[in-house]
Write a structure and sequence with these properties.
By secondary structure, the protein is of the alpha/beta class. It has 19 helices and 22 strands. The strands form four sheets. Strands 3-2-1-4-8-7-6-5 form an eight-stranded mixed beta sheet, with helices on both faces. Strands 19-16-20-15-14-21-22 form a seven-stranded mixed beta sheet, sandwiched between helices. Strands 11-10-9-12-13 form a five-stranded mixed beta sheet, sandwiched between helices.
């Protein structure tokens, strides 16, 4: 047995604000012999969305025994464009590395020290990992080592030395192709663009939530060539902060549009959002196509926050450029520790174990509760009566999307119910769609195109055949697509698979609404206590907690008993 690997993404932010600024989504991973032992997105523990304060909580996690560090471990820390700095709040864990000036193809040696008791400490075997490498390696826990002749791409707002990087894995070796900031303007459409913020009414500190909102909003509009020229001529209005009136005046003068405010129900702004999305997709596809032609790569591994863009992902699949495309469920910064840990484990000669998405397990008690037929039937009957239920089973999902273990579920064929769940219960904006979960066999029957394995992680959208659309009105976007999550087999998610099978076989229910178990602006629930408290606040009709159904009437009593 080799030494365990502790991987952290906990680089100190440039500023200490009430919200994450340059750095967000701190996380950690403990891996040994190629298998993830523990993983945590910090926000799930602290209950602060996108939390970037791992330095303040790492010693607490160790001291409480939640992070079960073995006596011997190696450390790898993920770099960021703001620097390398990491020292835990009490100074017990220190990490130092030279500032990266050139992006490399391997891990860099570093220095680290761990004071594991009042009178004893030790130097650690330590390494520094760029975000670029950690992003692309976040695929490895889910898909295994890179296949021969693969193109590896990271694309996000900002990493260590770039926002877009490309590598080629050929003859067992990783070769850097390019890195830089030339694609940053595209990523900025979704997280750092004055026009986007104005259209959505986003405030300072909401930059981490703007990407998801803009993707949803874009589905309401249509691409317009005149708008595209207008955007290009003004450099996409990316620096027009506090100059919203100038954007409106320009639209009125140059496009003849009768708008006098950023009313997001106005079709013009919806078309602007759709046009930004089209430009993003087209420019990204052009870059990837050029890299594929350069390398003749057969496979693509893709990660970074931009890999959450389902429209661009779908275009990638439909292009046929690659035999297969791989994207991890935690392709944004939440997967950085998993990627870094995997790289160090491979360096040690370990084979990486195959993992499910349900890795967020730090602080979660491992309860082996069997799934009873009675619970499946009772849950189904509540759903058929129009109930909205919470699901909190086992470990939580890695990444930003609920995949059936920390979900809110309801019938997918009721648009009124979907609106109530999204806008009234979750407090989300009117324009944001809700996704369905269904069996892969059902998805293949109702979708107009073949169902790709990436649907397992809710990373693609599909058009629905007209004869089935009426049964899914609650989850179909304004543009006629829906972001399906699929389950291939029972081992993917035993409870949800059995529930979906029961509903389809007995009642011809195609799928269920599946949205994250949280109120907007709050992290997804993590523990049983989180789930019970949030269920009561939301007024849910029931909660499935570790495969046991708790009805609404019993929830308050259950909370008292579990204090």
């Amino acid at each position: 047995m080799s030494r365990a690997t502790l991987a952290i993404y906990g680089i100190k932010d440039r500023t200490s604000l009430e919200f994450p600024a340059y750095i967000h989504d701190h996380n950690l991973c403990l891996m040994q012999d190629g298998c993830v032992l523990q993983y945590l997105q910090l926000e799930r523990y602290t209950r602060r969305k996108y939390d970037n304060r791992l330095d303040l909580f790492l010693e607490e996690l160790i001291g409480l025994g939640l992070l079960d560090l073995p006596e011997e471990f190696d450390l790898i820390s993920v770099n960021a464009f703001v620097g390398n700095a990491f020292i835990s709040g009490g100074g017990k864990l220190r990490f130092e590395a030279p500032i990266l000036s050139v992006l490399g193809e391997a891990l860099e040696p570093a220095r680290a020290y761990y004071q594991y008791s009042d009178r004893a400490g030790r130097e650690l075997h330590a390494y520094n990992c760029s975000q670029e490498l950690a992003h692309i390696a976040s695929n490895i826990p889910f898909y295994g080592s890179f296949r021969e002749n693969s193109l590896l791409i990271h694309f996000d707002g900002a990493a260590s030395l770039s926002n877009f990087s490309a590598f080629h894995f050929y003859q067992g070796r990783l070769r850097l192709l390019e890195y830089g900031w030339a694609m940053k303007y595209l990523a900025n459409f979704f997280n750092d663009n004055a026009l986007s913020f104005a259209m959505l009414g986003a405030q300072p500190g909401e930059h981490t939530s703007v990407p998801g909102k803009l993707m949803g909003y874009a589905s309401w509009g249509r691409y317009d060539e005149g708008i595209a020229y207008w955007l290009f001529a003004h450099d996409y209005f990316k620096e027009y902060w506090h100059r919203e009136a100038e954007i409106i005046a320009s639209a009125r003068k140059e496009l003849g549009v009768e708008v006098d405010s950023f009313d997001n129900r106005h079709v013009f702004w919806q078309d602007v959002a759709a046009t930004l999305q089209r430009i993003f997709t087209q420019e990204l596809m052009a870059r990837i196509r050029a890299l594929q032609q350069q390398t003749q790569a057969q496979y693509l591994y893709y990660a970074g926050g931009c890999a959450l863009n389902i429209v661009a992902n779908t275009a990638l699949i439909e292009s046929g450029l690659f035999q297969e495309v791989f994207i991890p469920p935690c392709c944004n910064d939440s997967g950085l520790s998993l990627g870094a840990a995997s790289l160090l484990e491979l360096r040690k000669g370990n084979t990486i174990c195959p993992h499910t998405a349900y890795l967020n397990n730090l602080g979660i008690e491992d309860q082996k509760v069997p799934i009873s037929d009675a619970t499946i039937e009772a849950t189904a009957q509540l759903l058929l009566r129009g109930s909205i239920l919470g699901i909190c089973n086992g470990s939580a999902e890695a990444g930003p999307r609920a995949l059936g273990n920390r979900s809110l579920i309801a019938l997918a064929g009721d648009a009124v119910l979907a609106k109530h769940l999204s806008q009234d219960i979750k407090k989300r904006e009117w324009y944001r769609p809700i996704a369905p979960i269904m069996l892969t066999s059902v998805a293949e029957k109702i979708a107009t195109s073949p169902v790709n394995h990436l649907a397992k992680y809710m990373l693609l959208d599909y058009k629905i055949k007209p004869e089935y659309a009426g049964s899914l009105t609650g989850v179909i976007h304004a543009n006629g697509t829906t972001r399906i999550q699929t389950l291939d087999k029972e081992s993917d998610n035993p409870f949800m698979y059995r529930l979906l099978s029961y509903l389809y076989d007995r009642h011809q229910v195609l799928g269920l609404i599946n949205t994250s178990f949280n109120v907007q602006g709050q992290p997804i629930v993590h523990t049983a206590a989180d789930a019970i408290e949030t269920s009561l606040k939301m007024g849910l009709d029931g909660l499935v907690l570790n495969h046991q159904l708790i009805t609404k009437d019993a929830l308050a009593t259950y909370k008292i008993l579990t204090r």
